[in-house]
Structures are given as C-alpha cells and as structure tokens.
Amino acid sequence: MTDTFSATAALLAQAGAGDERAWNALVDQHSRLLWSVARSYRLDQADASDVVQTTWLRLLEHLDRIEDPTRLVGWLVTTARRECLRVLRRSGRERLVADSDVDFDMVDDAEPVDTHLITTERNAILWRAFQRLPERCQQLLRIVVAVPQAYDQVSTALNMPIGSIGPTRARCLSRLRDLLAGAGLTGVDDPGGDPGVRQ
Amino acid sequence: MTGGEDAALLAELRATLDEVDPVPPLVLEAARAAFGLRRLDAELAELVRDSAEERAGLIAVRGDGNVRLISFETGLVTVELQVTERGTVRDLVAEVSGTALASAEVETPGLRHPTLRDDSMISADAVPSGLLRLHLRTIEGRDLVTSWVRV
Questions:
Q1: What is the Cα–Cα distance from A34 to A55, expressed in whole angstroms?
Q2: Inter-chain contact B31–A31, Cβ cutoff 8 Å?
Q3: What ipTM describes this predicted complex?
Q4: Do residue A57 and residue B131 have CB atoms under 8 angstroms apart?
Q5: Do B56 and A94 count as a contact with CB atoms less than 8 A apart?
Q6: Collapsing DSSP states into helix, strand and coil, what is residue B46?
Q7: Residue pairs between chains A and B whose CB atoms are closer than 8 Å
C-alpha cells in the first residue's frame, strides 16, 4: 500500500503548490475517514461536521509543514481526534474514562440512532448490533473500515499499540458476530447468494 | 474465524455505515471550498491557550455572558482574543502585542469584517457563532493569520 501513501503525498505537494483539483481529491479520499472519527466520538451531525471542517482548515494552515506526507492519514486522524476532544471538553461532555483508556468491554448503552431510513433489514440489524458493541470497538471498527491499510496510522490515532489492533479487531468482530447471531442473523459469507435475514 | 470471514464482515459493515451514516454532501462541499481560504503569504499565529478548554469540567461554561480568552502566538507577536457569548452571536475584542497593526479583519468561512480600533486593539460586535480567524497586517507590512477557532 506504499503506492497509496506516495500518491497521497503527491496530492499534498500539488495542493501545497495551489492545485485545487489535488485538494479536492484529498478531500474526497479522506473525508469519510474524518467523518468516521468524529462519529466514533459520538458527536452529532452538527458537531461532526464542524470537526471535519476544522480538520481540513488545520491541514490548510499546515499544508507546507506536514513533516512526513506519507503519514497524512495519521496526521488527519490525530488532528480530528484532538478537535473531537476539544468539542467534548467545551460542551462539558468529556468522558469520565480518559481517552487513552482502552475499555473494550464497556457496553455502550447510548441511544440508538434513528434507523427508519435504512433500506434493507439486514443493514438495520447490522447497524443495531454494531451500536451495541462496546464504544471502543465501534471506534476501532469505524476507523478500520475507513482505512483498512494503515494500521500503523490507526495505532497512532487511537493511542493503541500497533500489535494489539489486529487481535482487538478480531475480538470486536467476534462480538459483533455474537450480537448478530443473537439477532437471528448468520454469517455474511454463507453459500447460497443473497444474504438474508434468517428467522 | 478466518481472516476472509473477518474481511467479509468488515466489508459489509463498511457498506452499512455508508448507508446509515454517510458524509453529508455539505461537509464535502465546505471542505472543498476551504481551499479558497488559504493564505499563502500569511504567517500563522498558532492557538496556544483557550480558557474554554481549561475551565470546562470545573465550572459551568454554558450560558449567556460567558467570556472566553483565546491566545495565539507567532514569534514575538501575541494575540489575546476575548470572546463574549450573547446567544448566537459573539462580541470580540482582541489585543495584539509585539507589533503594531495597520489593518485587521475578522474572517469567517463566508465573509470578512474589517475591524480595527487602534494599532493594537481590534473589536467586532455581534459576529455569528462559528469558525473564525483574525487576519492582521502589521505596519511593517507583515501578514498574520490566527488559527481557526470555533466561537
């Protein structure tokens, strides 16, 4: 995946030289990740939008000063995370658990997000199961699906040792499978085509 | 579980998250448009202190009439921004030390308000809450911008 990172570094250099298309490409490639980070801190739409926008503005401020452009993903995630903590601190919603404390067993009992717009029942079930995962699992999985290839940068961003990301990811997925099984949904790679809801 | 099964579940989760919680189009538009706010020639005064972050957790910071102090620095130049909250608008007073100002603007992603009281003081009333930064020009012709802050 080195190529992906060199391509990112090239876009960063072009944007730094004033190329708006390169900037737009960076925005298109990485906004989803930043959104995932913000939402993984349970920010609402408005606060998450602010965090993403602020993160891009910070990148613009530091466009010529990113020390290692191949690590842009890590820089963006770290910046977004800092902005999330800022929002939480300002609004007095800072967690009791310090951000660096990894508690993958703490069940998340937050209010589920409105699911009426979800088109398939399977997606709705997966989403509900996902929301019942411990918070740090949700956070890790959201970021892992957004940047599957950059474990070292995920590790920096989440304050987690890189060696624990793979095993933790596996553990979180296994819990998700248990929740899905509890909801009557079986594995995603069953033979027989269309993955449907089993009663 | 095998790596392949994990990968399949992750792919499915990705698709679900894309559907359930996509990046709002306005967020992408704003991020693209931000490129136009870049100031190549201006020196950045970085955020070094924000009272809102220090006080939170100790005393309530919500409610009208709160005063927040935000400091920015670059080299010898310091900008102390005082933000008073009045509902959805903010009154700003900033004091600049280490240089003398020729002009100053309060800049939001949408507009710029020229504002200067004297060569070290800036004030602007009833600025809408949201992201802003200060753009300063010194009498020596240096351009400075502060980091963006949300007020």
A1: 8
A2: yes
A3: 0.83
A4: yes
A5: yes
A6: strand
A7: 132
Domains and CATH numbers, chain A: 1-94 (1.10.1740.10), 99-190 (1.10.10.10)
pLDDT digit string (tens) for B62-84?
Answer: 444 578 999 999 999 999 999 99
Instruction: Tell how strand B143-146 and strand B43-50 pair up.
Output: parallel
Average pLDDT over chain A reads 78
CA distances from A43 to A85, A125, B16, B76 (A): 10, 22, 19, 37
* Higher-confidence position of A43 and A195: A43
Could you tell me the residue range of the domain that residue B54 belongs to?
40-150
What is the Cα–Cα distance from B132 to B130, expressed in whole angstroms? 6
CB A36 within 8 A of CB A77: no
pTM: 0.80
Cβ contact A49–B44 (<8 Å): no
Q: Is the dihedral of CA A165, B19, A50, A10 positive or negative?
A: positive
Q: Do the Cβ atoms of B5 and A187 come within 8 Å?
A: yes
Overall average pLDDT of the A25-54 stretch: 92
Which parts of chain B register pLDDT below 50? 57-64
Lowest mean pLDDT among A62-76, A93-107, B47-61, B131-145: A93-107
Test the A interface: residue of B20, B58, B59, B90 with most A CBs within 10 Å: B20
Asked whether residue B123 falls in the same domain as residue B103, the answer is yes
Across the interface, which of A142, A148, A189 has its CB nearest the CB of B5? A189
The predicted pLDDT at position A155 comes to 77
